[in-house]
Structures
1.
Amino acid sequence: MRRTFDKSLKVELARRGLTQASVAEVLGLSATTFRSYIQGYRPLPSGFRERFEAALELVERAERAAEEARRQVLAGGVR
């Protein structure tokens, strides 16, 4: 089987500090299927890049919101 590895997908995940599992979940894919796209074992479906970018943005927004909520809770301290 000829692999058509697209390193840019993996690089983008690493650059943003995101996990394959978190992005796969947002995309509605199993971790195994997503990993097969990242590693080039399966061809990318039509429109995947756009969905991938949207998923990255959504995961980043969720992580920022969770971090802000954590800061607010911890700032309140124990009473």
2.
Amino acid sequence: MLGMTRRCLAALVLAVVVCQPAAAAMRCGQYYIDSGARHGSGKYEVLKKCGEPKERMGNAWVYENPRRIVRFNDSGRIQSVDN
């Protein structure tokens, strides 16, 4: 019984870890831009620290070297950073 409880607990912990959203982040030169908890980076800060994106597609900005797509939520904060 105890072994089964430990396996269930381990499975639950693994499920919680896997389901946690990853923090969106990228490096722009010496700056680190991330989604943060409550006060993550917004469009103005990304533009100031990373410069003009190669392309803007609504709430998605494309940066090169390395290629990153920064997606913003409706309030202008970083939602995700994709390769």
3.
Amino acid sequence: MEPLIDDISHLSGPNNDISHASDQRVLVTGATGAIGGAIARMLVAQGTAVRALSRRGSDRSYLGDSVEWFEGDVREAGQVRRAVEGCDAIYHCAGFVGPLHYRFSDFEDINVSGTRNVIESAIQAGVRRVVHTSSIAAIGGKGGEVADESTVDGDLMAGYPQSKRSSEELALAATSRGLEVVSVNPAVVYGPRERYFSRLIRMHVKGRLKVTAYPERMIPLAYLGDVAATHILAMESGVSGERYIVCGQSVSLGEFLSVLSSASGVSEPRWTAPNWLVKAAIGVGRATSPITRKRPPLRISDLSTLGPTYDGSKAAEKLGLNYTPLEDGLAKTVAWLRG
């Protein structure tokens, strides 16, 4: 087990004061994931009693016996109700990302039905407040434009983006029934224990990233520690019914790899795949998805623009979040990968 006293220094931003102790008991769903685990770790460090919901067989070593574990699945309403009982607040972080996943029904079952079970259980149990982990995928946005919390994009991809939009709408609608709900919308998350985008970082650190594509495409980024801190700040002072985007910086892929190269000491990829080849590969991937049971995470049309960027200033101005500079976040991530 990783010792709890690794002091969350790799999580916390340099100036985020989230050390407010609490005598409440809070439930964290998805506590074995990167975001839920980081939130739980911060809460424990500040003296909050944490109950963690995890599925059978999940790796609990990161939190160990520092939390009260409840075995359960957010898709099972009865299991969720038992976990919620006696809790004052909930961080609902459980969700399914699956960038290449084929069955859209799984996104609906976990992200939408799971959220419905958490919200209904919270209302029945008299929970005061829920912070819901959403995503910039639920916001969308047009290429070349800057999206913020007021953006409504009707052209979302099926699967993860649509399920996150639906789950967020479901959660925020509960404010009309007396439950306080705040939505946190992280950009592309990177950092220690993050499992998806950090694959790119890991490949680079190991010297295996030889070819890139679309180096000019913008990537909106959120360091994991900033995402966790925003959840806790949102629980304390976020306005019920509102969204808070977490996006520390938006950089092109080329810029990102340049900063990563400096942080790791590993040279940048030497080759760039031509755009036509990438589009052809996506087209083939979508055509063969009924056979491979995998769907490309992008559409060909998504590559026709630089991609949207996101304004994360509301979390800084209204919640007091201090963003971690990209150089520092990547240095911590690289150190953890090599640790």
